Amino acid sequence: MGGSLAGLLAAHVLAGHADQVTVVERDSFPEGAQPRSGVPQGRHPHVLLEGGQTALESLLPGFLAELRAAGAPRVGMPSDMAQCQDGRWFRRLPATTHIYTGSRAQLEELVRRRVLANPVIGVVEGSDVVGLLGDASRVRGVRLRDRSGDSRGEERVLEADLVVDASGSGTKAPQWLTAIGAEAPHEETIDTGLAYASRIYRGKPGALDGDTLGYYVYPSPAQVHAGGALPLEDGSHLVIVSGLRGDEPPTGDDAFVAYAKKLPHPLLHRWLDEAEPLTPPFGYRRTSNARRRYDLPGHRPAGFLATGDALCTFNPIYGQGMAVAAMSAVALRDVLADPRETPTTLRVQRAVLAASKQAWDISAGADRKMPGAVGTAVEGKPADRAADWYLARVQERYPSDPVVGRAFRSVLTLAAPVTTLFAPPVARAVLFQPAAPPLTEPPAAPEQPGA
Ligand SMILES: Cc1cc2nc3c(=O)[nH]c(=O)nc-3n(C[C@H](O)[C@H](O)[C@H](O)COP(=O)(O)OP(=O)(O)OC[C@H]3O[C@@H](n4cnc5c(N)ncnc54)[C@H](O)[C@@H]3O)c2cc1C
Question: Which UniProt keywords apply (predicted)?
């Protein structure tokens, strides 16, 4: 259910184990890399973190070369961007990781083309899943309703031995499970009320086209506005501004630009003043973290799995969802390939959920501390206090210390486990070295290696 990143990548893995895999998608897929209504977030920045790059490459060998060949900008961090958090500008040290900042539509189209070339995988486009077949002990397929053509509005059934929910953050699967007599999962939520507005611009020649590829101001509990400009594949920039509940960024032309003045530095506002808008601003407000605990005890049927945003949705400001969709597909592949264990529904679901744990800990851990955060998981555990103390020291040193910076970036980009932050050289810098005085202005150029 759902033919976006999580659905396509799950289909790709399952094609190695099934006679036939059918992807059911509400939208009709566009020709080429176009935004589509079933993925409204596609108009907003979508960075692909290193953990996601590794996962995609392992699922679809050669994928990163295809992405590069299609023009997706590959941005070295922290060298190629002017970045700031809490009034501290980051030193532009040599890159220790890269992110891809091309459009979401382009990335999805490349994945779709690769995955749907497999003859085992079929697609039913322009059809809504409207319910499940089966009972509390076993899901046996789905009910579909066509959205267009002569059969518009007609319902039919599609039987299946395994149904995978990849229908995104707005999934109705919990209600559909209840309707067949099974139990809906417990849902953990943390909602900061974060809202985005994004718009594509072409910058004035000479600005953001040399060795500074983009800007980014990150939010924090003390400074809740974020904003930046990230390069797209055609040389334009996708500009985002964001704020919290009650102070959402507007989508009017002038008001969008004026909102950038709320950032703690005039850099983005100045750039916008001279840049040419290529689209209207688009808003987005559904940014709650939500994790559906199908792994916990309950009356759950066999033959039903959830993945991607339908299983675990993150506040998008941390840029993790696509990476986790790909890492979850790798987890699905690995658990199905394990000859020592019978892949029961519960065992497979646990493995898929485990692939999102680090990303959840990062976004839930940070969002709990944001002013006005609400939800069922907003309370931390007492043990979080010691971790918070250590993390605050990491964050103070991260913008300027090469050792702490490398370690923290590798964790945030889902390329290395959280334990990396406690490796002896990192712990020494965090515990015993004073934080360097913050840079109060953005460095104009990358630092040279060894400088
Ligand atoms: C504003 C914003 C910015 C983001 N930025 C980033 C970022 O920088 N980096 C990053 O990695 N991630 C980012 N994400 C997260 C990313 O968009 C998702 O995590 C990613 O798309 C995973 O997608 P998915 O396939 O699980 O769901 P989605 O991409 O949401 O797709 C769900 C699919 O299911 C289909 N569907 C829904 N209901 C039905 C139904 N009943 N029947 C049939 N089909 C159905 C939809 O049409 C859609 O195609 C961002 C998200 C948002 C909201």
Answer: Monooxygenase, Oxidoreductase
